[in-house]
């Protein structure tokens, strides 16, 4: 065996295992001011609800920042499936357990990325900016370039609170929604398109733009059927719009069955009215009356009332339905008003009467 052959075998033994196992690398430069810790954290966004949540349990790797702001994070522990990740820094007063995501121009401290175990990305902050990731330049995959374009739409929107006039605020919010909707509709990456939709207010727009959200659900089920994000999205969509997937081959049969059921229901109502008109009025007054919850409550309120009857707390309901705790409380107050009750126990009794 020649020396050249031995050398080639040696190189293969070193390089090939790393290639087979996969390895990712994120490098670049940030603006390291005195108030920032010299560390960069890489966090996995396991659930869509974690998109803007900083938590120690989400951190998968850490890189140290040199005095000139340069850093490198690398490894091979990421899933092979492309997922959302957040690269962020923390201020000196914070720890891994109370980290914050800052959205101000001077404090912007994070970047959202799409990574797998073989990704290579470089991020270079503009040194003329004070924020750690101020006006950053990104080099990497096409998906991450799309994420950078998305950030140019989203991040300025967080300055809404500076707008003094409600009408201007409303118009700015509407423009952002239209921009995100256009980005999602024209985006070649399903994950980047999903990131755009995550930044929309689904609760506010789910009724007027139900077709938009439902159409994207079909795209997710077609292109990412096994993804955890698809499951998250579908659950949230069902809560806000009542969306249910239908097989096109069965749609005609379903429509026919619905028509038969409607005709049968109309016939039953006519028959019931005749029976009621001929019955004794006093006996009718004595007959127990059930509450028709479907006529009183919305679909969302009925779902929350059902969870309340199962003994779920407000926090558990918020977690299961992927909504804010304040949203759960608002729905519960509406339920109480509609049922004429003031306590959880009374609401459960009314729920049982409606079964």
Describe the fold and architecture.
- The protein has 355 residues and is of the alpha+beta class.
- It folds into four domains: 22-140, Immunoglobulin-like (Sandwich), CATH 2.60.40.10; 160-241, no CATH class; 248-278; 289-355, Arc Repressor Mutant, subunit A (Orthogonal Bundle).
- Helices cover 50% and strands 12% of the residues.
- It has 14 helices and eight strands.
- It has helices at residues 3-21, 142-154, 166-186, 190-198, 202-205, 210-223, 228-241, 251-278, 281-286, 293-296, 299-309, 314-321, 325-339, 344-353, and strands at 24-29, 39-44, 59-64, 70-75, 83-88, 110-115, 120-124, 137-139.
- The chain is elongated, with a radius of gyration of 27 Å.
- The N and C termini lie far apart (83 Å).
Provide the descriptors you would attach to this structure in a database record:
single chain, 50% helix, alpha+beta, 4-stranded antiparallel beta sheet, Immunoglobulin-like, 4-stranded mixed beta sheet, 355 residues, elongated, 4 domains
